[in-house]
Amino acid sequence: MLTKLEDKIILEAYQQSVELQLDVEFISLLKDELVRRGLLDNLQSNVSS
Predict the structure, then answer these.
(1) Between the CA of residue 29 and those of 32, 34, 37, 39, 49, what are the distances in Å?
(2) Can you tell me the distance from the alpha carbon of 42 to that of 22, in angstroms, rounded to the nearest whole number?
(3) What is the Cβ-side half-sphere exposure of residue 22, based on CA atoms within 13 angstroms?
């Protein structure tokens, strides 16, 4: 299901979900997809900047 979403959308959804403290399982699904796509490093470097 998440495979059809663009990388940018997944990243934004993850960031907003964490900020809004949404359901942990939902955040975990998004994070797993970020890891699968190799985007978690991008997210962490954006947060560090």
Answers:
(1) 5, 9, 13, 14, 25
(2) 21
(3) 14
Quote the CA–CA distance of 35 and 19 in Å, as a whole number: 19
Q: How far apart are CA 49 and CA 30, in angstroms?
A: 22
Give residue-wise pLDDT tens across range 1-49: 788 899 999 999 999 999 999 999 999 999 999 999 999 886 666 654 4
H helices present in 1-49, as ranges: 7-19, 24-37, 40-48
Q: What is the pTM assigned to this prediction? A: 0.80
